[in-house]
Amino acid sequence: MSADKIVLHGIRSDQFRHPFDLEATRALQQLPGFDLVIRNLLGSVAERFFYLDNISSSIAVSEAQLPHLHKLLTEACEILDLDVPQLYLRQNPQPNAYTFAMRGQQPFIVLHTSLVDMLSAEEIQAVIAHELGHLKCEHGVYLTLANIILLASGELPLGVLVAQSLQAQILQWVRCAEFTCDRAALLVAQDSRTVASVLMKLTGGSPLLASQLSLDAFLEQARSYDRVSADDLGKLLKEAQVSQLTHPLPVLRAREIERWSASQNYQALLSKGAIAYNGKTTLSGAPAGSASGGGWRNW
User: What b/e readout covers 62-98, taking b as 16+ CB neighbours within 10 angstroms?
Assistant: First the structure.
């Protein structure tokens, strides 16, 4: 653990949730029955399927296997006050990371090898922390629903109707949840440029080009996007651009995390609530929630 990092002992998800996430989650919670159906009917099957898939086709990270990645995971969990989930490394040329957990079961995070190849250790930890944010906020059941709806739209006759009626609302929630998890990444990285650098590299980086990219230019690009889309036509085009996406645009995510890093909310989490605890700097608060929820999600 870096000596100057603050451990947020007892931090609750409601202390850093993005307002968009809160609003979209309330809307989803008004949909009757889907949480219970997914948890009861799909939970054990999905958990077993993905566990077998990971254990057979990925590298299980531990103290004995890729210990440097395991250390990044455990440090991030300590900062966010979470139980340590399983972590897997999977061979894949598409830079990505995702998480899955059903309530009461063992959650896991998967990193693709191409992502690890492109990022620094601090950036890899920020990605891990983003995934931990989904667990901390118990996003999983809703993420499971999102993936089922998107997959069902082309597989089942009824799925088309279900997808058409729920897809827009689900995708809106997913995009809002990503803003919250970027905040979790910042709480662990404790440097907004680290999180923004991940977004920049995922937008247009590669192992060859990553070191040549300018973060300042990328952040200015994000501000330019805001200026260009500020009028009514720009807002309409922006809405059309993102309506079918599962993630907010990278420039918007970079802008949001830059703004939150300068906010009183973020500064209070790192400083006003910090107290001495077992020789470390921590944040006092209620007992943290365990890693639970359900679902899998791309970074």
Answer: eeeebeebbebbbbbbbbbbbeebbbbbbeeeebbbb
Give 7's strand partners.
Answer: 282
pLDDT of residue 72: 98
The number of residues making up the chain comes to 299
CA gap 286, 21 in Å, rounded: 21
d(CA 231, CA 225): 12
Helix H or strand E encompassing 166: helix 157-189
Sequence letter at residue 211: S
Among 299, 295, 201, which residue's Cα sits nearest to residue 248? 299
pLDDT at 245: 58
- Which of 131, 138, 178, 256 does the annotation list as catalytic? 131
131 catalytically annotated: yes
Give pLDDT < 70 ranges for the chain: 1-3, 31-47, 102-105, 144-167, 229-230, 232-247, 272-299
pTM: 0.83
Extract the tokens encoding 70: 């395991």
Instruction: Answer whether 127's CB lies under 8 Å from 185's CB.
Output: yes
Tens digit of pLDDT for each residue in 207-259?
889 889 999 999 999 888 877 766 766 666 666 566 555 667 888 899 999 99
Task: Give 255's contacts (C-beta < 8 A, 6+ positions apart).
Answer: 219, 222, 223, 225, 226
Distance (Å, whole) CA 282 – CA 88:
29
